[in-house]
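TA notes, week 10

Several of you asked for a full example with nothing omitted. So below is the full record: structure tokens for the whole chain, then the designed sequence directly under it. When grading your own attempts, check the secondary structure regions first.
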């Protein structure tokens, strides 16, 4: 009796089981020469990525300024009452006097208060907030609202997300979470410090995206040939996306200074290239969709070859491309709507101001999101034929005869 759960040999002789995402089973035969070249490309890509990361690694200068007081010491507080009283600066106007109890910091257990200048403010009794304080000339502390406390709700949301991933993905979910954790680590430890250190922003983005792609794909889908195909396809599509982003950000004269945060960042840190940050955002943002498309296409080719081992390379490509068209139509629409959603307040503002659609879309605030969507979409579209042809090449025209089926008991 044939054991269907038994492992089948990979191109390198490594046993793989039938539970990988990229292939339910390794095809009966693969092109050993193409497989070796592919693993060589993966090795070269890994070496270049690591070398570039070492060269671009930030110097680690701890000296930094905080003129906007973004690192101000905050105090956790709970609002106990809100009263409508005369404003301190104008007794004829009415302000909301917010009283709160502090739970940490130098005033733990004490009550404090501050004014909301508008009578219809956004705070309510029972809200958990953060406040800051400074000493007045009389020596008494003056308090001000800093932000809401959100950590509790966000921790619960994170827990729900992790449980959902593990319940549905099981061991693959563990790998996906590992890839996500590594992605965050790369962004925090390498990408942001390297940009602030003055390194070329687009290069930093490409290196960061490559590091993330290596970890995310291999952790989530295993160290198999199918994953290697998806990785090479992703990196090729990512490079194309970067080239297009560089070309059209320049030809459309986008400055990267379309929002207040970019303007403040340019004033706070020397050597920050706002246009480079825009390019980096496009490249890193496209990665999450690209690896999904390439994995799907490689999986489609793997399954077709498994079902019909006699199919040639061209015969494999045609149905796989048809599958990719369906994926493209939904993914591009999703990507476009995501960027439109981000620019929706701006579109509403320009429409209310009486501007035409053309005038609104070509304003830098909106044009930035349009360029993001179109460049990312072109990269996604290109990833389908790249991944399909490369996967078909690997599983077609084997150098040797197919592995014989195991004899039935």
């Amino acid at each position: 009796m044939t054991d269907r759960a038994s492992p089948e040999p990979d191109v390198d002789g490594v046993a793989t089981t039938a539970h990988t995402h990229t292939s339910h089973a390794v095809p009966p035969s693969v092109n050993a020469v193409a497989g070796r070249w592919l693993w060589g490309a993966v090795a070269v890509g890994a070496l270049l990525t690591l070398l570039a990361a070492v060269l671009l690694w930030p110097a680690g200068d701890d000296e930094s300024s905080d003129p906007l007081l973004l690192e101000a010491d905050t105090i956790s507080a709970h609002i106990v009452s809100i009263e409508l009283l005369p404003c301190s600066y104008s007794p004829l106007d009415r302000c909301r006097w917010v009283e709160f109890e502090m739970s940490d910091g130098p005033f733990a257990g004490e009550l404090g208060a501050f004014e909301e200048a508008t009578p219809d403010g956004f705070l309510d009794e029972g809200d958990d907030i953060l406040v800051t304080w400074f000493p007045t000339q009389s020596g008494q502390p003056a308090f001000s609202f800093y932000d809401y406390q959100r950590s509790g709700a966000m921790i619960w949301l994170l827990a729900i997300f992790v449980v959902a991933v593990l319940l549905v993905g099981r061991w693959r979910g563990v790998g996906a979470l590992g890839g996500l954790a590594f992605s965050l680590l790369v962004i925090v430890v390498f990408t942001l410090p390297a940009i602030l250190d003055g390194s070329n922003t687009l290069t930093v983005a490409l290196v960061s995206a490559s590091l993330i792609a290596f970890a995310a794909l291999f952790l989530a889908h295993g160290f198999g040939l199918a994953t290697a195909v998806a990785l090479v396809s992703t990196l090729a599509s990512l490079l194309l996306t970067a080239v297009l982003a560089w070309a059209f950000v320049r030809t459309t004269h986008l400055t990267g200074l379309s929002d207040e945060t970019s303007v403040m960042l340019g004033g706070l840190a020397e050597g920050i290239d706002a246009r480079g940050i825009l390019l980096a955002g496009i490249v890193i943002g496209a990665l999450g969709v690209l690896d999904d498309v390439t994995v799907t296409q490689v999986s489609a080719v793997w399954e077709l070859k498994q079902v019909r081992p006699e199919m040639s390379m061209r015969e494999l490509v045609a149905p796989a491309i048809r599958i990719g068209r369906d994926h493209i139509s939904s993914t591009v629409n999703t990507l476009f709507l995501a960027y439109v959603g981000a620019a929706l307040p701006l579109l509403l503002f320009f429409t209310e101001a009486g501007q035409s659609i053309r005038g609104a879309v070509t304003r830098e605030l909106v044009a930035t999101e349009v360029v993001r969507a179109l460049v990312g979409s072109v990269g996604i579209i290109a990833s389908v034929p790249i991944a399909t042809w490369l996967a078909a090449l690997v599983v077609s025209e084997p150098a040797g005869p197919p592995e014989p089926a195991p004899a039935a008991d």
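Residues 75-149 form one domain. Use that as a sanity check on your answer.
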